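dude i think i finally got it to work??
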Amino acid sequence: MDKQEKNPSKIEQAASDLFNYAIDREDVRWLLGHQPEEAEVKRATVEYELPILKIISVGWSLSYYLPDGPEKEELSDLYWTAINDFSKDLSTTTEMMIGQKIDYFETLKERLGIYVKALEQQPEVQDPATIIGPEFARTCGNTDDIFTFMTGSKMFMAVIARVKEYLETIKLR
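look at this
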């Protein structure tokens, strides 16, 4: 093991920490466990979409909270490279299990595009969670389902708050 691997830079450590947070499913399980039976969407769809929302919310937070500069660019690049590698592994495993080719990273990019477009269409809105929640519910199949709206909003708000706090703690923000 070389010195770089033993002592990662502050940015490399941050990218690793944020990647590990993004793929951790504890909060996904918690939100699913608290989703009411009255929700008018397929639970499997919400279970599929929540981790996607979490991953892209971490990436979005980096763009939103970090000042422009080399640290922001490096951290974002390292984070998204790790997500891309993870996606390739997940896609390969899923393909072997179901016999159908998928590209999970492409799905992430598509969802990010959907959420960013929704945010851009309403620049006057102060709280992005009020846009992300309904968009999440729409992605899950029912824009009018308040329970799914709230699940997406909760995930988004929790993720951006934790990323902001983390960046402040390590003095990148």
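DSSP finds eight helices and no strands in the chain.
im so relieved honestly
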